[in-house]
Amino acid sequence: MKKTSEIATMGEYTKEFFRVLVEYSPKLISAFIILFVGLYAIRIVNRVVKKIMVKRELDPTLSEFLSDILLWALRVLLFVTFISKLGIETSSFVAILGAAGLAVGLSLQGSLSNFAGGVLIILFKPFRVGDTIEAQGVIGTVTDIQIFTTKLVSGNNQTIFIPNSILSNGIITNYSVEGIRRADLHLAISYDTDIKKVKEMISQVMDSHPKILKEPEPTVTIKSLTDNAIQLAIRPWAKNEDFGQVSSDVIENCKAAFDEAGITIQPYARGNSN
Asked: pLDDT tens digits, residue range 108-127?
């Protein structure tokens, strides 16, 4: 009798299971159809949007950032539609999601400020990937603008990550925007030296260098008069990619010209101007 009763109960459970399954299967099937079709459609939409942004020549970093936001926004919308089709009440789910988002936001205030800084950098473009910048006491070439940090590579091949919140609120010197740079070089000579002759020699050195620009014109001026020397300011202009070589060559070639003319370079010591 007991076994017969258990078998009858199992049979009722099985019938109920199949009844619910039959009743619920249209919702289940349609929900998964929406899910798979939605995922495919999102991929197509994201691809089309990326092509449009490339065609309109938007900044690559901005294009990638906007496409990622669009991708995740569409995925969240699809997920809400999916669970709604399954018959799950979405209002309570959205409330829970909002409360969780608030809690996460409060615990990640620093990361959110970095995110906001990344958005500001991408929108206002104080620099782009490939630019050489100076910020927070470091100089490097921008290799990647990420959501939370910006990646620089320094001249000695060190990778530097700067939080975007600090970067967006600090002073940034961008050496690449104008395309050319002026070197500010200094040499000191004794008071016995013929200043006019020295200036002519330095001008000849700069005029003969193939990578020093003619416009703007390079200049040689007296920077200051110290207790033991006349300090000269040498200012050649060069393209960004030639800046380092030009700075080094001018000093080296001036030293060679001075040696040939018997002119001694004084130690560059700071002193009171006369």
From this structure: 455 678 878 888 887 788 89
* AA letter at 228: N
Helix (H, G, I), strand (E, B) or coil at 128: coil
Sorted by sequence, the CB contacts under 8 Å of residue 48 that are 6+ apart come out as none
Helices (H), 56-147: 60-85, 90-107, 109-124
The length of the chain, given as a count of residues: 274
Burial (CB < 10 A; 0-12, 13-18, 19+), residue 141, is: middle
The residue whose two tokens read 């539609």 is 81
Task: Give the tens place of pLDDT for each residue, 10-57.
Answer: 666 676 666 666 667 777 778 888 888 888 888 888 888 888 877 776
Q: In Å, what is the CA distance from 95 to each residue of 49, 71, 91, 105, 137?
A: 31, 22, 6, 15, 45
**pLDDT digit string (tens) for 55-86?**
776 667 667 777 777 887 888 888 878 877 77
C-alpha 80: how far from chain center: 33
